[in-house]
Amino acid sequence: MSHSDIDEGRRKFLKKSIAGMVVLPAVLNTSLKAEKPKTTSSKFIYRTLGKTGMKLPVVSMGVMNADNPNLVKAALDAGIVHLDTAHGYQRGRNEEMIGQVIKDRGRDSFVLATKVPADFQDDKTGLFTEKTKPESFIEKFEISLKRLGLEYVDILYLHDVVKKEAAMFEPLLTALINLKKAGKTRFIGVSTHRNEPEVIQAVADSKIYDVVLTAYNFRQPHLIEMHKAMEYAAKAGVGIIAMKTQAGVFWDRERQHQINMKAALKWVLANENVHTTIPGFTTFDQMNLDLSVMEDLKLTPEEESELTLGDDMGMNGLYCSQCGQCEAQCHKSLDIPSIMRSYMYAYGYNNFTAAKEIMQSLSSDGKFCNDCHACPVKCSFGFDVKSRVMDIARIQNVPSEFLT
């Protein structure tokens, strides 16, 4: 199938899904007494996070790229309840910053989630190895609690799960269950950026996990599978939180053509199986724009047309669907999906530190495409893979203190 065929198919599916998702039934667990968070806005729209019973505004805050405590304070003051961070964000400074913001706030006034990765996850298979020990996972989580200044978090995720076997890896699953029993976390879940339908279904089938944090946006080529898995999980009572909702933010590397941020977020929230979202705003204007989405979730005809703007202009965007089809084509067996994710962090999110950390984590000789005369990889999104790999590989030589 040619790239033009894929683009045309995506456009047709996008228009059908926009029309169809607005009539999806809300799948909410009403058997549990839901906690109603305090808010200063009467315009906020709430949904129930599956069997957790928590009612949250449909717009939450992904804090990954934010380093301004005043922005987090403003978000909470505006009525946002849920903050999402991770053990590794900004090398721990993100959790520390949040800890300073929330230390004088009532514990029932916010919902805090953090994500902890496990050691020795195979880059190629996504599976954990015999070297993966729960003790290391627990130790990192305890460090996160200390940074946050909390005795417990509301949601603890096993970070970056790409296979159902990884979601059900018994030593880590037992650790999560025990941490929940010990009161260190109220709920447990997994986060997934890749092979999401399989992971989402595994979460639902486990009957153990409470929440899944999944990449979900209008640019994903596997939306039919995503919608089936999300509906299945929601019916099973799993709380579903969407990330990567803004699909890379820009259509182009030069950041001259921005995706309609409001339309992208509305598209995600048209699916009522999404209980809340964590767009990663980093400015007050971006925060206000995201919050304004809740004034009217319905996509206008103009917004709907703008979601195909990049395809119509021949731009591939920055978001990589992490489909993995490229890996088998690469003579050097590079982890191209992770490299494309690094590329998006750099040029879409302006987060060069995260981009460099991803590149440094890869098992590579550091040369990447240097000694390849021709690239055999044909990307399903039409990316010039070699050009992007060579471009972002340069970040390895930039001193960390020069990055923000």
Task: Please provide a brief summary of the model.
This protein is of the alpha/beta class and 404 residues long. It contains 15 helices and ten strands.
What labels describe this entry?
404 residues; alpha/beta; TIM Barrel; 2 domains; two-stranded antiparallel sheet; 15 helices; disordered N terminus
Task: Explain what you see.
- The protein is α/β, with parallel strands linked by helices.
- The protein has two domains: 3-306, Alpha-Beta Barrel (TIM Barrel), CATH 3.20.20; 327-402, no CATH class.
- It has helices at 3-21, 69-78, 93-102, 134-148, 164-167, 170-181, 196-206, 223-235, 261-269, 284-292, 301-306, 309-312, 336-347, 352-361, 385-393, and strands spanning 46-48, 55-57, 61-62, 82-84, 111-116, 153-158, 185-192, 211-215, 239-243, 276-277.
- The strands form two sheets. Strands 3-4-5-6-7-8-9-10 form an eight-stranded parallel β-sheet. Strands 1-2 form a two-stranded antiparallel sheet.
- β5 (111-116), α4 and β6 form a beta-alpha-beta unit.
- α7 runs parallel beside α8 and α13 (336-347) packs across α15 (385-393).
- The radius of gyration is 20 Å and the shape is globular.
- It starts with a helix and ends in an 11-residue tail after the last helix.
- Mean pLDDT is 88; it is low at 1-7 and 13-41.
Mean pLDDT: 88
Uncertain residue segments: 1-7, 13-41
Task: Give the SSE order as H and E letters.
Answer: HEEEHEHEHEHHEHEHEHEHHHHHH
CATH architecture of the largest domain: Alpha-Beta Barrel
Structural class: alpha/beta
Instruction: Count the domains.
Output: 2
Backbone CA Rg: 20 Å
